[in-house]
Write a structure and sequence with these properties.
The complex is a heterodimer. By secondary structure, chain A is an alpha/beta fold. Chain A is built from ten helices and seven strands. Chain A has a five-stranded mixed sheet with strand order 5-4-3-6-7. In chain A, strands 1-2 form a two-stranded antiparallel ribbon. In chain A, strand 1 and strand 2 form a beta hairpin. Helix content of chain B is 7%, strand content 27%. Classes of the chains: A alpha/beta, B mainly beta.
Chain lengths: 279, 173
């Protein structure tokens, strides 16, 4: 009888260890999902997941695979997704006012789609309190977008809302932009009225890098359109020759280090201002 | 089309417009009423009721509009005798000297009226007086679609503080 009790106790102990191991493993998986920023921990739980699924960008197992890269321009989101349109964002503020933000203008608009209860979003809410210290390029407008009062609690959003930043509560905007989960960032070029970058991020510096990369991609276009050769309608070898003449006149000879930038800082300086840009 | 709706004001935003409908925080014993701002440029976080802090950012093709509600004591006064918000402005309605802050080249118009039992003023600024013919149709796209609801509580029944520091009407800044 004693032997039987010992055996049963041993079996129970082993099963307990097994269950504890499984729970630990499950916790590790959840933690990893949080770090990937795939929206686990949304305040509205299954309702949110169901809502996202209706837009064809589920946060389920497939969704996890889609967001392995933390942030990038043109991340591998679903192919059928419209990733260029940039409609105005309209909704209410946490205090019950109405707010609508147009994407048009001479500036970039960075939309930060955040949730009040998402663990990964917490770091962004904190960082946005000091939004003037983020290092975003000039002429970048930062707008926080949460889901509407139907899926978020305005009082909770209000406690986290950064002072001086527009915070729009709009479930419709999440649908318009087909946001797969939070945190998610969309960068819109006001001149073209199109999205030029979007993706998931875990850290603020990744978002800042997204904006800097997008801005860097846009600047050469500006330089070309403002060049004398382009203005004079030159093309091909004639344009190349004209550009060479301008470079020589500016004292930039073949092999000059400025012709071979190694980083964005070489082009735009540490503060983002273009170096040696004429006009 | 994005739709703004708050405090009994509803405004579908025409393309290129943004806006906000809000009630300022109360300071002391003052009473604040809804204000709606609309602009074709990025509105700063803190804009005066009639556009201070915003109109100086306007380009020549920009538009700023403010719809400002007054207190119930204004109802029935001569200034607010016009019934209904003006829905179709003309280029002739805009004058460079009708500006609360005279900025070179800009042009403005201001209308006082009562709509749905609520006293308002509509103040519109154009970035360029010389381009008013092109800008006024855009203004009309905006003001033509703004809806104002009657107050759920009669204005005269609103709780109005009776302290001696309360100024009649809403504040101007």
């Amino acid at each position: 009888m004693v032997a039987l009790a010992v055996v049963l106790s041993t079996v129970v102990l082993l099963l307990g260890i097994l269950v504890a191991g499984l729970l630990r493993s499950h916790a590790d998986i959840l933690k990893s999902l949080h770090e990937l920023g795939v929206g686990v921990g949304e305040p509205s739980g299954t309702e949110d997941l169901a809502h996202d699924h209706r837009h064809g960008t589920a946060n389920g197992p497939d969704g996890v695979g889609l967001h392995q890269v933390p942030i990038a321009l043109g991340p591998p989101l679903p192919g059928e997704r419209n990733s260029t349109s940039a409609p105005a964002v309209a909704g209410v503020t946490p205090t019950g006012d109405a707010l609508g933000v147009s994407m048009e203008g001479e500036h970039l608009t960075l939309l930060a789609f955040l949730s009040s209860g998402c663990a990964t979003c917490a770091g962004f809410w904190d960082a946005l309190q000091r939004h003037d210290q983020l290092g975003l390029p000039a002429h970048t407008r930062l707008v926080v977008v949460t889901k509407g009062p139907d899926l978020e609690i305005p009082a909770e959003v209000a406690t986290q809302a950064p002072v001086g930043l527009p915070v729009v509560m709009s479930t419709e905007a999440w649908g318009d932009y087909e946001i797969p989960g939070s945190p998610f960032f969309v960068l819109v070029d006001g001149r073209s009225g199109r999205r030029i970058g979007e993706g998931v991020a875990n850290q603020v510096h990744q978002v800042v890098e997204l904006v800097r990369r997008a801005e860097a991609d846009g600047r050469p276009f500006d330089l070309v359109t403002q060049s004398r050769a382009h203005a004079e309608g030159l093309d091909g070898p004639e344009r190349e020759l004209a550009n060479d003449r301008e470079l020589l006149a500016a004292g930039i000879l073949p092999g000059d280090p400025s012709l071979y930038p190694r980083s964005l800082a070489d082009l735009y300086g540490p503060d983002g201002a273009p170096l040696g840009r004429a006009g | 089309m994005a739709l703004l709706r708050a405090h009994g004001i509803e405004a579908p935003l025409p393309g290129g417009f943004e806006g906000r409908i809000f009630v300022r925080s109360v300071i002391g014993n003052e009473v604040t009423y809804p204000v709606a701002h609309f602009a074709t440029f990025a509105l700063p976080a803190d804009v005066g009721d009639f556009g201070s802090g915003a109109v100086n950012l306007m380009g020549p093709n920009d538009i700023f509009a403010s719809l400002f509600e007054y207190g119930p004591e204004s109802i029935g006064t001569a200034l607010f005798s016009r019934q209904g918000m003006p829905r179709s402005l003309t280029a002739d309605d805009f004058r460079p000297y009708v500006l609360r802050r005279g900025l070179g080249g800009q042009s403005g118009t201001q209308w006082f009226f009562t709509d749905s039992g609520r006293p308002f003023t509509l103040y519109v600024v154009l970035g360029s007086h010389t381009r008013r013919s092109a800008l006024v149709p855009r203004v009309n796209d905006l003001v033509g679609s703004i809806g104002i609801s009657a107050p759920t509580v009669p204005l005269t029944a609103r709780s109005v503080p009776t302290g001696p520091t309360m100024a009649p009407g809403a504040r101007w800044n």
